[in-house]
Amino acid sequence: MKFYTLLIRYRLWIGVVLLVAAIAVNITAGFWPSFILYLTGVVLIAGHFFIGPMRLIQECIEAGDMAGAQKVLKMIWFPNLLYKPIRSAYYSLQGQMSMMNQDFEGAEKHMRKSEQLGSPMAETEGANKLQLGMLAMQRGDVKQGESYIRAALRAGIPDRDGAAMAYLQMCQIYMNKQHFKAAKDMFRKAKAEKPTNKDVVEQIKKLNSTISRMPG
Q1: pLDDT value for 174
Q2: SS (H, E, C) 39-87
Q3: I need a surface site. Which of 33, 41, 88, 89 has the fewest CB within 10 A?
Q4: pTM given for the model
Q5: CA quadruple 8, 9, 11, 14: dihedral positive or negative?
Q6: Residue 77: its pLDDT value, please?
């Protein structure tokens, strides 16, 4: 596994070295002895530009190394060359990174690009729509925010914290509309997700007493 990780990280440069070696062998010994070097070099270089190091990014995120994930993202020089589903995941990750850095304009731009490209996974689509919904709510566009959050819940949100956040946001929307029964239902669903994120847990604690006093 470590070998494969190293291969992904350095395959562009390995591919370049192999192509240089192939040219040297071609000159000294002919084309056919150099063919395997040409083929391997081209495959490695094409893999870097068309598939990218997305596996490395996933490993960084799973390890909680967001700084490492950002460094790997910078290895992708020409995102428009990425295979379409991978390009969608790339822009989704860029959007999440922008959100972490409080760059909400950049986050929305990247998330919209990901949404336009479509996603091979419904869960990724749900996460994207949730982020777009939260960004719309921050702008004060409640109607669009609600639409995106509903769409996110329909598509499915891959993590419990994200799902709980979506249900809490819908709870707030229903409370503002004085649809108290629906608000309570959303609150119950948020708690049922058993989130671990401190901010989400704190929000549930703050809402708990308010919800208990509501009619319906």
Answers
A1: 94
A2: HHHHHHHHHHHHCCCHHHHHHHHHCCCHHHHHHHHCCCCCHHHCCHHHH
A3: 33
A4: 0.71
A5: negative
A6: 92
